[in-house]
Design goal:
The chain has 16 helices and 19 strands. With about 450 residues, it is α/β, with parallel strands linked by helices. α14 links the parallel β17 and β18. The longest helix has 27 residues.
C-alpha cells in the first residue's frame, strides 16, 4: 500500500511518499490560493506513475484565513506568529479570566489564538469579517485543495480558543466574543475526511507536533515526545483530560491527542533551534563547527545560561529576557556548549513538570526535528534526561511520514508501526553527573 503525507509547516510545506520515502518540499506560501496550488502540485509529482491508496494531512495550528462567499481568501494567511490581537487578548482575559478560559479550552490565553484574531478583525476590519463565509485553517485549505470540501480535525479545532474540550462542542460565549462562528465541520480523529476526484481517501491527521509524536511511537502515558525545530515542544499523552489550573500556571496546554482517546499536555520553548541558529550567525560559525564543538560529550558546562531571549513560556512562565543573542564572548566554543546544555536541561524541566502534574511516571523520550542531526546535542539531551531511555528519529519529514502512516492505518484498519528510532547508549556514571549537582544548580537558578 502506498500513501502520501502532507505537512503544512510554519516554514516549509512537505509531501512524502510511504513506504519508499521520497520527499518534496517548498517554502510555505503566505497566500491561501498559492498554498493550495503547491499542495496539488507536490501531491501530483509524488503520485505520477504510482497508485496512491491514501493521503494524510497534518499542519501547524492557530493559522488560518477568512474566505468570502466564493471561498476566496480575504487576506493572506494569518499565522500563529502574527498575533495582531494583543489588546483583544487582554480584554478577553479581563472579561472571562485566564483560569476560566483554561478550564473550558485547555489553553493559556494569548494573542496567537484565532478567537483573539477574529475579535481584532471585528474591531478593526468589521466589513471584512462581515464578508467572511468561512474561516479555514492551514490543513483545511490542504484538504479542500485535494477534495473540494472543508473540514477540521479535533486537535486543530481545540487550538482555535472556542472549543469546549470536555464536550467537544463549540463554546457559544467564546464564539460570540470572537464574532465568528462560520467554521468547517469537525471530523472525528482517525476517520476519512473526504476523497480526491480519483477516489483516493484523504485523512485529516491533526496538529503536526502531535502527529510527529504519534509517528515516533509516543502513544501511551509515560512516553514523551520532543519536537525540536526552530521552537521546541514537549508532548505527553495522558489517560484523559486534566484541566487543572496548576497546569496553566506552569505554561502547559491541555487537549485531546491525535487518536481522540488520550489527553495530551504540551509545553513550548520558543528559543530552541532558532536560538542556536541566531547565535551561530552572530559568532560567524557553521553547524559543522558546532557539531565538532559539542563532541565528544563529557560533563556539562560550568557556565549556567538562562536561554530565554524573549522570556520563558514554560515552566514557571516569565516574560523577562535573560539572554542577549547578540552579545560577544571571548570563548565561542564554551558559549555554545553552555547554551546547548541549558536548552537540554530546560527540555527535561518541561517534561518533568508535565509528568509530575499529570501524575505520570516518565519512562522514555523520542526526539525528532532538524536539530537531531547534531549528534553532540542529542547526546547532551540523552544525558540530561535523568537516566530515562532516549532515542531520536533522524528523518527529514517526521510529521509528513506520520500523516501517511496514520492514513494507512485508517484506510486498512491495521495498526501502523511507529517509525524506527535510534536509541542512545547512556553511560550511567556520566548520566549521574548530569543528574547531580549540575541539574540541581540549573533548576535552582531558574526554578
Amino acid at each position: 500500500m502506498i500513501a502520501l503525507g502532507v505537512d503544512v509547516g510554519t516554514t516549509n510545506l512537505k509531501v512524502c511518499r510511504v513506504p519508499d520515502g521520497p520527499v518534496r518540499s517548498v517554502r510555505t506560501p503566505d497566500d491561501a490560493e498559492a498554498l493550495q496550488h503547491a499542495v496539488r502540485r507536490l501531491v501530483a509529482e509524488l503520485s505520477e506513475g504510482q497508485r496512491i491508496d491514501a493521503i494524510g494531512i497534518t499542519a501547524m495550528a492557530e493559522t488560518g484565513v477568512p474566505l468570502d462567499q466564493e471561498l476566496q481568501p480575504l487576506t493572506e494567511l494569518i499565522t500563529w506568529r502574527d498575533q495582531p490581537g494583543v489588546e483583544q487578548a487582554r480584554q478577553l482575559a479581563s472579561e472571562l479570566g485566564a483560569a476560566a478560559f483554561y478550564g473550558r479550552t485547555g489553553l493559556r490565553l494569548s494573542a496567537k489564538l484565532p478567537v483573539v484574531t477574529w475579535r481584532w478583525l471585528r474591531d478593526t476590519h468589521p466589513e471584512l469579517l462581515a464578508r467572511t463565509r468561512l474561516w479555514a485553517g492551514a490543513p483545511d485549505l490542504a484538504l479542500a485543495a485535494l477534495t473540494g470540501g472543508y473540514a477540521m480535525h479535533l486537535t486543530h479545532a481545540q487550538r482555535l480558543g472556542v472549543l469546549d474540550l470536555r464536550n467537544r462542542v463549540w463554546d457559544e460565549e467564546l464564539l460570540e466574543y470572537g464574532g465568528l462562528d462560520r467554521l468547517p465541520p469537525v471530523v472525528d480523529p482517525m476517520t476519512v475526511a473526504g476523497t480526491t476526484p480519483d477516489g483516493v481517501p484523504v485523512v485529516l491527521c491533526g496538529h503536526d507536533h502531535l502527529v510527529g509524536a504519534w509517528a515516533a511511537g509516543v502513544r501511551e502515558p509515560g512516553q514523551v515526545a520532543d519536537s525540536l525545530g526552530t521552537a521546541e515542544a514537549i508532548i505527553t499523552p495522558s489517560s484523559g483530560l486534566v484541566l487543572d489550573d496548576a497546569l496553566r500556571r506552569q505554561g502547559i496546554s491541555m487537549g485531546w491527542y491525535v487518536d481522540g482517546l488520550h489527553g495530551c499536555a504540551v509545553s513550548g520553548n520558543g528559543a530552541a533551534g532558532g536560538l542556536v541558529e541566531q547565535r551561530l550567525a552572530v559568532l560567524g560559525q557553521s553547524y559543522s563547527w558546532l557539531n565538532d564543538v559539542l563532541s565528544p560529550v563529557g560533563t556539562p558546562s560550568e557556565s549556567v545560561i538562562a536561554p530565554y531571549p524573549q522570556g520563558r513560556q514554560a515552566p514557571a512562565p516569565d516574560p523577562t529576557s535573560t539572554y542577549d543573542v547578540t552579545r560577544l564572548v571571548d570563548d565561542p566554543a564554551e558559549e555554545m556548549r553552555a547554551l546547548v546544555d541549558a536548552l537540554s536541561l530546560h527540555a527535561r524541566w518541561m517534561a518533568e513538570e508535565q509528568t509530575r502534574l499529570l501524575g505520570i511516571g516518565w519512562r522514555s523520550t523520542v526526539a525528532f526535528g532538524g536539530p537531531v542531526r547534531l549528534s553532540g546535542w542529542m547526546e547532551r539531551k540523552a544525558l540530561a534526561s535523568g537516566g530515562r531511555d532516549f532515542a531520536v528519529l533522524s528523518g527529514a519529514a517526521t510529521a509528513a511520514e506520520g500523516a501517511a502512516l496514520m492514513a494507512t492505518e485508517v484506510v486498512t484498519g491495521e495498526p501502523a508501526e511507529p517509525l524506527r528510532a535510534r536509541a542512545f547508549e547512556i553511560d550511567p556514571q556520566l548520566a549521574a553527573t548530569w543528574d547531580g549537582a549540575f541539574w540541581h544548580r540549573f533548576h535552582k537558578l531558574l526554578g
